[in-house]
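Query structure, 705 tokens:
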């Protein structure tokens, strides 16, 4: 892993007057397990640097030209040769637009209020940052809330947004060596509340002469002068001297007026066992676990808070002890958090196999029609079969029934329910954040929605499966399949992809109709008595509960001719000749009473295409007969299924096998055994995952032309 860190232009990465960003970067980098892989870039005039892995970008002064742009441009040229896995940009959202061309993981750190910074002030700018960046990190929950102001709700749950507080090293502090010392560290201006501190501390020192005050900081632009014999102003001090001062300080004050994005002073004071008093502004309350928070910032309230600690030694002691005991924002913790997200955004998901099953548990969001609104009439549908396969592979699976959702939410403002559907999908994505999004016939999911997911969740894989035939007579189905194919990592269909003449750039795979052990539970070849010989059912190509009046299917002509030329054979037919379609348990009951299952699809046979009826029939142990022009016979031999050439050939074979119980049962048993071995829902589910993630493994049906 190669990481490049870009500091703000003129950020002083030096022990001499270092900024908060420099301190944060250097301290966390020192103990990172990837520190040897990290290079820090900046531009400073100071020769001494905070760490050896720093490269200074030298710039020539130019009139009427932005030095900052030149700074980023020079960094850009360097990175083109390095090709880092991650570029971490600190506190300059404006840099992101320039660096996006590198096509690597960009991570943006905010150390200030986002809505005050160039490049993130507007809603559109912040949405753009969310789109471009792999991660956006804030130094406080307050800063994160600022970033999300006026953004739509689903952005609020984006996994790209993360809070990683600033940190400091944790050392042992001897509380018995604390002095009667009250310390203020920071800019000596009104924004930092230095005037409020001054009003309160003069009165404190007058009333409690055994106590002293110490001020560390400067401010050339605003002169606030404090004079008292017990108050000493040290001016600017380096970082180490500040920490040493906190070691002996009893009470530390950070009473900012302005909304502090975080507040390093109070953090470091707490880590050194100070009793800390802070204002309730910005991210300041997030810097301490124990202390006094001023809800009403006035000299009087600050005076009262300090006096409480001076007069109540027990409370002072408790706060000091708790500051140390409960301090958790250590450099070690924060460094580990940084390393963790680095691993997450660069990690390529690799799967280990154990008997052809995935060990790794991934999160799958499966979007298809689970037919909840049909009250169990279609409980055995293909979506549920594939879903069962995902679950049997021990993955985390969340079902999202798109057709049911549009049915529930359809209204006058959203006639087909698609607006609510797409909004709901984004909300689910933001909460669940799957490793892969699998779509099955999800036509109402808009392409724009998937594009948004691709941009904002680049690590999510996308796959689609499609059951309907797509040859020349079914152009509309092919259009549905191709509509979102450019966004898919892999696509799956039940027609041979080669015969469809699809663009070779798309990863399209043939997917057999799966059989599932929870649905296909019959073993018809064991039965001795049958009410009927041949079972055939259809529904005019859709899941209709009843026949549509005036609708005609060419298969009716074929079946009626078959009946006429096949005497003494009992046919059990549904969905034709004014006989209603059959569903659910009635469907299973009907096929349990038949010897032979006939699989006949609409139109001319297409290579490998078959309706899911095929898996249902062979999976329940019926002898299955299918047109040889489907080329399904490439997967089976004559001892597993029966192929027919035409209606006359089919008629002869029906008569033969209806009367030969031993041979029929043998072939039916062999067919079921083979189908369950190779075409079970677990194998199909694994196939979808493997191809989507680019895992090389050949499946039975891929080895056959």
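Result returned for the query:
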């Amino acid at each position: 892993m190669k990481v490049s860190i870009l500091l703000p232009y003129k950020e002083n990465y030096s022990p001499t007057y270092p900024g908060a960003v420099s301190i944060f970067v250097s301290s966390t980098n020192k103990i990172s397990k990837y520190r040897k892989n990290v290079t820090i870039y900046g531009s400073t005039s100071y020769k001494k640097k905070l760490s050896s892995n720093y490269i200074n970008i030298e710039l020539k002064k130019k009139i009427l030209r932005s030095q900052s742009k030149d700074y980023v441009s020079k960094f850009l040229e360097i990175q083109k040769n390095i090709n880092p896995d991650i570029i971490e940009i600190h506190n300059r959202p404006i840099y992101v637009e320039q660096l996006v061309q590198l096509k690597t993981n960009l991570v943006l750190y905010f150390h200030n209020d986002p809505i005050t910074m160039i490049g993130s002030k507007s809603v559109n700018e912040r949405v753009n940052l969310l789109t471009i960046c792999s991660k956006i990190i804030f130094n406080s929950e307050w800063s994160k809330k600022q970033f999300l102001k006026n953004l739509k709700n689903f952005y609020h749950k984006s996994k790209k947004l993360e809070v990683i507080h600033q940190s400091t090293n944790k050392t042992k502090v001897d509380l018995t060596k604390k002095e009667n010392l009250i310390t203020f560290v920071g800019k000596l201006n009104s924004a930092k509340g230095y005037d409020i501190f001054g009003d309160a501390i003069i009165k404190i020192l007058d009333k409690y002469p055994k106590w002293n005050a110490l001020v560390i900081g400067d401010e050339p632009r605003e002169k606030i002068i404090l004079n008292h014999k017990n108050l000493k102003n040290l001016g600017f001090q380096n970082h180490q001297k500040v920490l040493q001062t906190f070691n002996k300080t009893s009470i530390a004050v950070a009473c900012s007026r302005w909304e502090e994005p975080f507040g390093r002073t109070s953090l470091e004071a707490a880590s050194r066992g100070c009793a800390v008093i802070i204002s309730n502004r910005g991210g300041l309350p997030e810097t301490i676990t124990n202390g006094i928070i001023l809800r009403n910032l006035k000299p009087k309230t600050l005076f009262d808070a300090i006096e409480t600690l001076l007069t109540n030694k027990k409370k002072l002691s408790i706060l000091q002890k708790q500051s140390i005991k409960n301090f958790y924002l250590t450099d070690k913790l924060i460094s580990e958090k940084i390393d963790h997200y680095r691993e997450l955004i660069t990690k390529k998901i690799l799967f280990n196999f154990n008997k052809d099953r995935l060990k790794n548990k991934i999160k799958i969001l499966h979007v298809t029609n689970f037919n909840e609104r049909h009250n169990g009439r279609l409980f055995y549908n293909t979506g549920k079969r594939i879903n069962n396969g995902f679950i049997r592979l021990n993955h985390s699976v969340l079902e999202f029934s798109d057709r049911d959702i549009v049915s529930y939410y359809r209204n006058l403002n959203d006639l087909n329910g698609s607006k609510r559907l797409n909004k709901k999908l984004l909300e689910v994505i933001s909460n669940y954040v799957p490793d892969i999004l699998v779509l099955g016939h999800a036509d109402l999911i808009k392409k724009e929605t998937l594009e948004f997911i691709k941009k904002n969740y680049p690590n999510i894989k996308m796959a689609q499966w499609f059951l309907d035939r797509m040859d020349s007579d079914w152009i509309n189905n092919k259009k549905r399949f191709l509509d979102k194919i450019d966004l898919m990592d892999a696509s799956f269909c039940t027609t041979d992809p080669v015969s469809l003449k699809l663009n070779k750039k798309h990863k399209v795979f043939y997917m057999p109709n799966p059989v599932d052990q929870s649905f296909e539970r019959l073993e018809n070849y064991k039965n001795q008595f049958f009410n009927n010989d041949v079972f055939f059912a259809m529904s005019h190509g859709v899941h209709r509960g009843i026949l549509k009046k005036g609708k005609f299917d060419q298969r009716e002509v074929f079946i009626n001719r078959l009946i006429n030329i096949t005497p003494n054979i009992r046919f059990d037919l549904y969905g034709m000749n004014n006989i209603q379609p059959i569903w659910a348990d009635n469907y299973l009951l009907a096929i349990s009473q038949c010897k032979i299952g006939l699989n006949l699809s609409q139109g001319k046979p297409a290579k490998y295409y078959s309706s899911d009826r095929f898996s249902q029939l062979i999976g329940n142990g019926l002898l299955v007969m299918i047109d040889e022009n489907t080329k399904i016979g490439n997967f089976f031999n004559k001892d597993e299924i029966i192929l027919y050439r035409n209606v006359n050939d089919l008629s002869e074979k029906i008569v033969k096998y209806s009367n030969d119980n031993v041979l029929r049962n043998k072939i039916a048993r062999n067919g079921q055994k083979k189908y369950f071995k190779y075409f079970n829902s677990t194998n199909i589910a694994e196939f979808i995952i493997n191809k989507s993630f680019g895992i090389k493994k050949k499946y039975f049906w891929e080895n056959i032309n």
